Amino acid sequence: MRNVTVNARKYDGLIRKTWTGELVEEAGNLVMLLGIFGEDIEHAGLGSIRRGTLSYEYYWLDRPYNIFRFHEPDGTFRSFYCNVSLPATFETGVLDYVDLDIDIVVDRDLSYKVVDRDDFEVNSKKYAYTTKVKALAENAVTDLIAVIEKRGFPFNDTADVSARRPS
C-alpha cells in the first residue's frame, strides 16, 4: 500500500486538517483509504476516539460527500461519519476536498443524525457560498440519507474487522 496525504479544506482553499492514510483501492471514481488515529481525540460529534482507532475512508471524485467507517482498535465496528463536501480530487498521492460543514453521524444501529447545519449557515455567509454550492450541499444530505436508509454501500458493511495493522 502507498501513503496518501488527505487535505480537508475550507471553501477559501485553506487547509483545515491534514492527515495520512494508506491507499486501499482505487475503483473508478472511488478512492478508499485506511487511516489509524495516532492519538486520543475528543470529537464534538463522535465523543472520545481512542488512539489506534481504524478509519476506512471513502472519497468519490464525482460525489459531494465522503464517508468514514470507524472501528475500535480491537476491530469492533464503531460508527460512520459523513462529510458533505465538494467532490474530492486525487493526484500525485494527495487527496483534497472542500468541507461544506454539514455532517451526518451514523450510529452502530445505523440510526443517524444530521449535524453542523449552524456551521453551514455561518460559513455560507462568511465564504459567500454560491446558490449552486448551497443546493449541492442540501442534495448531498438527501442523497446520503437515502443511501443510509437503503443500507447501500458502504453502510451495508458494519462487520468487525481484524485489528491487524496495515504494512
Q: How many β-strands, per DSSP? A: 11
Give start-end ranges of low-pLDDT stretches: 163-167
Distance between the termini: 7 Å
Order of helices and strands: EEEEEEEEEEEHH
> Which strands sit side by side, in order, in the main sheet?
1-2-3-6-7-8-10
Q: Into which percent range does the helicity of residues fall? A: 10-25%
- Outline, from the CA principal axes? globular
Kindly state the mean pLDDT as a whole number? 92
Q: Describe it for me?
A:
It is a single chain. It is built from two helices and eleven strands. With 167 residues, it is an alpha+beta fold. The protein has a seven-stranded mixed barrel with strand order 1-2-3-6-7-8-10. The chain has a two-stranded antiparallel ribbon with strand order 4-5. The longest helix is centred in the last third of the chain and has 20 residues, at 131-150. It is globular and about 45 Å long. The termini are close together. Residues 163-167 have low confidence and may be disordered.
Characteristic terms for this protein:
167 residues; seven-stranded mixed barrel; two-stranded antiparallel sheet; 46% strand; disordered C terminus
In short:
With 167 residues, the protein is an alpha+beta fold.
Fold blueprint:
Layout (H helix, E strand, L loop, with lengths): L2 E7 L5 E13 L2 E7 L4 E3 L3 E3 L4 E7 L4 E7 L5 E9 L3 E3 L2 E13 L5 E4 L1 H10 L4 H20 L17
Parallel strand pairs: 1-10
Antiparallel strand pairs: 1-2, 2-3, 3-6, 4-5, 6-7, 7-8, 8-10, 9-10, 10-11
